[in-house]
Amino acid sequence: MKFAKTVLCFTIAAVTFVTAVMAQSPKATGIMPPANAKAMVLAPLKPVLLSTMKLGIAGLSHDHVHLILSDYRDGKVNIVGIAEANKTLRARLQQQYNIPDSLFFDDLKTMATTKKPDVVLGYNPVAKHIDVVEVCAPLGISVMVEKPLAATLAQAKRMEFLALKYYIKLLTNYETTWYPSYRRIRDVARKDSLGQIRKMVAHDGHEGPKEINCSKDFTDWLTDPDQNGAGALNDFGCYGANLFTWLMNGQRPVAVTAIARHYKPQTYPKVEDDATIIVEYPTATGIIEASWNWPYSIKDLEVFGDEGYMHAFDKDNLLTHIDKFPTVTSVAPPLAAPNDNPITYLESVVKNRMLGISDRSSLRNNMIVMQILDAAKRSIAEGKRIVL
Fold first, then answer.
1. pLDDT per residue over 196-215, tens digit each?
2. Distance set, CA 222 to CA 63, 226, 276, 358 (Å)
3. What is the pTM of this model?
């Protein structure tokens, strides 16, 4: 154990040194090649195709849709159909991303039966994720939705039933799944270098969806308790629940306690804008701090073990303190394909190259996430600790 920790600390220090050396590039140092140096003529780079799958899009009102539409515009993905009834929203994004008329449909079933996509990506209100699965599952079309899986636990159970009945893959996409720093924490924890995990803390959120200028199409449903299932609790509480389930190897917690605050009733009259959730495990405690009231955007993760501590400040940067070794800051190594992008990951799972059974996007993980969120809502409503 001590030898392993020593090796780990030296490895982290070496990575930090190499990163610093690489930073001493001409651009970083300001020392540029002589003006008469022979110029290199580079051919234009062709776009890297992320997937050969035929992708269908269900809804355009989630602002995360800009990511996949950017990939489409850049020639990285093959979108064969888009289902969206709001013609004003359609027209705006069609012009922005140069999408042909032939891709648009008013309803999902017509698009799915006409274009026969391999998989459908849901960018609609969370409460309508179930509608996507109701249409796609009987057609044998797998689905990936943006987090969280559903607005309510009852919806999630129905979606799980349909996915299992029709043998489709039902996945949930989180931004933090593609953070190298988070993967690094889990890799170190799995080597037992931190000792037994005792406490996990996840901070997630920003100043507020309206404050950061999310689109009206997005905020109209995001701030509605029926369409989103809650406010900041669902929007950002799901991140911590997803990560804790992953770090605890799929364990179901024994109890959940939560409080919700309403700091901005004039801005968000229908939903809470701040939530704190305590998730109890037999050997550890997780604390989720989800808010639309942070003074800045934040997604970070702290993990405390019996013999070490790691803190991911953002997607790349880490602080590690193990045993009595000096504290080290480092940049996490890049993720390896296909785990470095939601579309390449999705293709691997749909084509059975990866099982996708217990990872962060999996149905199993996200059913536990929904149990945690449901217990948190009940705890707030009843003012007590909820035993699962």
1. 999 999 999 999 999 999 99
2. 11, 9, 19, 28
3. 0.89
